[in-house]
Amino acid sequence: MALALKESFLRLMYQTRVPSRSGRNERNTIRYRLVVSASARDRRPQNVEGNFFVDHTCIDCDTCRWMAPDVFARIDGMSAVTKQPASKDENIKALQALLSCPTNSIRTEKPMKEVAEVNKMFPLPIDENALPGIYHCGYHSEKSFAATSYFIPHPEGNIMVDCPKYIEILACQFDMLGGVRYIFLTHKDDIGEHDKWAQRLKCERIMHVGDIDYRTADVERKLHGDGPWTIGSDFELVYTPGHTEGSVCLYYKPMKVLFTGDHLYKSGETGELDISLIYNQQSVSLQLDSVNKLLDLDFNWIFPGHGRRMSFKDNNEKNAAIEAFLASKEHLHDNSKAGTTV
């Protein structure tokens, strides 16, 4: 969907084709990077009455809808507030979503004094019981199409997986947690403001050479070949080309978590495993072959850059889900190998 702004004189910047990254709406769209007009910042009529609202600059990234699902939902191709927060917990989650919105499209009618305290909550523990020591960074960046980034404290060096928007208060929180030794970049789409983070945190960036371009030419550790590679004793880097030439997943072996970037995710619409075909920069068959490689890894969680997280009760359930996914895409695999565009 396009941002249809009436104030044409404010379209001062440029126009780019950017498909929706939510996993629910795979249609080519045109969005405008521009000086935002007052009307674009008006609340969408699809919002319910109340303090929180989403304006017309929403890019349908899905972030707020999985961070605060009781408050936000998708209506007419963008997010909207469908229920105002009714408890302290819902209010905190709505504010966390507000701060994580890459385009600052979530707003309130009245200033919220709680924002300062919520700012200090990032990075957010994902599941302190099941997955102690894995955090969601928040502050999604428009430069990475709103990709989710993660923080993993570890005795051999803390790791950031992909990069959020650069926010000094978040950098200070990382300092309090022992800093960051490595920034692992899964692929070239989700690098965010990696340069600012690397300079501020004095850390080593890791990325596959297949995805290196002018923005990442100074990455400290470039991966060559098909791997696998390691970061310390607990992390394996798994080469999974298809979405891009240099896509790599981070496998956290003791916690049985696979950080997939944009390689594989749970669809917010079907609840099943999926890939985003329209974003593939390599062949579909190559990506499906890379998905097939995951059958050899023992993990119970998928943490993607785009799309929803997915959990499995054990490795057998994970493999069954992957095999079902591959079977559902077999016709695409065959067509891709035959040279048919899908």
UniProtKB/TrEMBL annotation:
SUPFAM superfamilies: 4Fe-4S ferredoxins, Metallo-hydrolase/oxidoreductase. It comes from the Eukaryota. Residues 146-306 form the Metallo-beta-lactamase domain. Pfam families: Fer4_13, Lactamase_B. This is Metallo-beta-lactamase domain-containing protein.
